[in-house]
């Protein structure tokens, strides 16, 4: 297992924040970004035998955490893990022992705060001010202090990752990368994503008597010239997307979208 020194990163960020030197704030941001990266990559290291090293090297933290949730759906949840002997299969004796606490960073939190820290590390284009005002610096310091306090529990987590669930592999039809997905995630969402950051192809998944079947998530378009039905991956469907008919070569551009819907029973808890 690689060495991800998240504690030192957190400690250096804390030390930089403890000074009154405002120029230290950017360095504190950098250390906190290192710390967040170390937390995420340490979790992913559990799956290093399933994922080629070259793939790990190209992942950014937000993409890495998204993929981690495909491997382990509870990877960004807080929980306490207990175990107990069994008097017979499936029946606990009631003598529970605590193995530790898992403290995690939510994917939504990571996307927001990792990028926020990064925004403080760049010179803003068209900025006419020599430096931030006292009020702006105070707000930046407050943001960094909040992020540090929220990162600390994840750094001190007793449990790094859990690998108790069943996982299966499938080959991406687009790039041929072998990808990994948690069976519980498949049963809950019916979806999977290629782990390669250069690909990211999306799949629908279904289970039958022979096992799990993966199909590229695609939608159909009728050519406006020859009426041939063409298929386009859903991840590429967006306003402005261009594609050609695979029969006559006619160019098309998506200019609008339409959602279909149906009546559904409304849950009283969500109404």
Reconstruct the topology from this structure.
Blueprint: H1 6-17, H2 24-44, H3 53-58, H4 61-71, E1 79-83, E2 86-88, E3 91-92, E4 97-102, H5 107-119, H6 134-155, E5 167-171, E6 178-182, H7 183-189, E7 191-193, E8 202-208, E9 211-216, E10 218-222, E11 229-233, E12 242-244, E13 251-253
Antiparallel strand pairs: 1-4, 2-3, 5-6, 7-8, 8-9, 10-11, 12-13
Helix pairs in contact: 1-2, 1-6, 2-4, 2-5, 2-6, 4-5
Model description:
The chain is an alpha+beta fold and 271 residues long. The chain has two domains: 6-155; 167-216, no CATH class. The chain has helices spanning 6-17, 24-44, 53-58, 61-71, 107-119, 134-155, 183-189; strands at residues 79-83, 86-88, 91-92, 97-102, 167-171, 178-182, 191-193, 202-208, 211-216, 218-222, 229-233, 242-244, 251-253. The strands form six sheets. A three-stranded antiparallel beta sheet has the order 7-8-9, with helices on one face. A two-stranded antiparallel ribbon has the order 1-4. The model has no long low-confidence stretch (mean pLDDT 86).
Note the run of SSEs as H and E. HHHHEEEEHHEEHEEEEEEE
Mean pLDDT: 86
Spatial separation of the terminal alpha carbons: 48 Å
How are the strands ordered across the major sheet?
Answer: 7-8-9
What's the gyration radius in Å?
Answer: 24 Å
Biggest sheet record: 3 strands, antiparallel
